[in-house]
Amino acid sequence: MGVPGEDAPGVLPARAFVNWYNGHPEYSWVGPEVDAALSSNPKAVIVGNGNVALDCARVLSKTPAELADSDMAKAAADVLARFQPAEHVSVVGRRGAAQAACTIKELRELTKLEASVCEVDAAELELGMTPASAEEVAAARPRKRLHKLFEDISNGASKGMTLPSKKILSRCTLRFLLQPTEVLTAPDGRAAGLRCVRTSLSGAAGAQRADPTGEMVDIDAGLVLRSIGYRSLPLEGLPFDAERGVALHEHGRCNPGLYVAGWLKRGPRGIIGTNIADAKETVKAVLEDAQAGAIGGAELAPLPGALEAPGVVSWDAWLKVDAAEAAAGAAAGKPREKLADREALLAAAAVAGA
Fold it and tell me: All domains of the chain, ordered by start, with CATH?
């Protein structure tokens, strides 16, 4: 974010938070950070309104019972259950709802939680609907459907807000036209909230700027997650577009014998399905080049030895991990019980550690 206070305890990258609750072995350090942050103040603010931001908001807004039915790592679920659902989760974007980076599926899921109500401020929704924003919404059906759901939430018409039996324990508020200027801190140095400046939109459709107005807005929170996008870094010898943050390629081919997939190929956008299609294109290029004799031969000779090195997990070994997690999950009434420790993963795979 590049604002004062960003290094305070209680401020975390959203990706680290997601990796932690998904059981990534290298992110166990996040648990104590989240515990301390929500212990100091059971409210959270998330900067950014893409799908990752909404995933974080949904996890923080779930009840312990909802978490228990998921495949979330047990260590993470145990920490979150002490505060679940979070008292208030604010999701902050510097432009309007018409420019929100999320997709309708992720937004709709926020409206269907057991004990959390999803809110959109009607005034902020209206302020962001400039003539240029109206053009942006009208130009694409997915954008039109997404904005209609924002309007329904603002009007209290979404399904999740009208269930008569719903006991509200938490609120998730989607905020717009707010640009962070400072992470507020408590006397002990921990994050205590987020200070933002109100923005207004100007410019043509598809290129609107968020201009600061001078009006300041403070949001109370003990946990601050930043979800403001990702940028790939170049590798030596890799053709790279520094402006877009992607590798230069042709159907996944970068250099002879060098291929690219994922966000390094397309940039940090799209859903899992679009990235699968991109990966298939790259795999097709690899197979075509191998069949044509463009790759392979002597340069692959060291590969079998490298694949037998300590700590390398083969496909068959990974299937053992998958079976172990699925069996543990079935015993606990969950889709799976993720192994979040490197040694436990290697033990389940029955391979020697590095």
Answer: 11-226 (3.50.50.60), 240-301 (no CATH), 305-349 (no CATH)
